Amino acid sequence: MDMKNSSKHEDASSNLVEKCLHELGPKSYSNGNLMRFTLNFSESNKIGSGGYGKVYKGQFRSGVLVAVKVLENKDVVEETFMAEVNTMSKAYHRHLVKLYGYCFERDMKALVY
């Protein structure tokens, strides 16, 4: 597959993912939004890391504290990302974190809890 066709495939695939995510309900955030929430992914705001990436403490302008899980691109495939968003957007229990939103950009895949 040449670069031109690869780019078209990625765009079509990304559009499909965005459509599915929109239907699930969580809000879409940009990489810029996430940088503001976490003070540019400051190491002082890093609260954990694991097999899928790092987690940062963040804060909405309203004062609500959030955790931003930044997924490493090499480990993230659309199906895995969609499965986590699908599961967390439908789950509700007082002992579970709430999925506020996500970022699904070419160079940034993240979940906002």
UniProtKB/TrEMBL annotation:
InterPro entries associated with the record: Kinase-like_dom_sf, LRR_Rcpt-Like_S/T_Kinase, Prot_kinase_dom, Protein_kinase_ATP_BS, Ser-Thr/Tyr_kinase_cat_dom
Protein kinase domain mapped to chain residues: 41-113
A Pfam family this chain is assigned to: PK_Tyr_Ser-Thr
Protein name (record): non-specific serine/threonine protein kinase
EC number: 2.7.11.1
Key words, A-Z: ATP-binding, Kinase, Nucleotide-binding, Serine/threonine-protein kinase, Transferase
Residues given in the record as ATP binding sites: 69
PANTHER family according to UniProt: LEUCINE-RICH REPEAT-CONTAINING PROTEIN DDB_G0281931-RELATED
Enzyme class per UniProt: transferase
Catalytic activity line of the entry: L-threonyl-[protein] + ATP = O-phospho-L-threonyl-[protein] + ADP + H(+); L-seryl-[protein] + ATP = O-phospho-L-seryl-[protein] + ADP + H(+)
Transmembrane found in the keyword field: no
GO molecular function ontology, one term from the record: ATP binding
Database matches in PROSITE patterns: PROTEIN_KINASE_ATP (PS00107), PROTEIN_KINASE_DOM (PS50011)
KW Kinase (keyword) present: yes
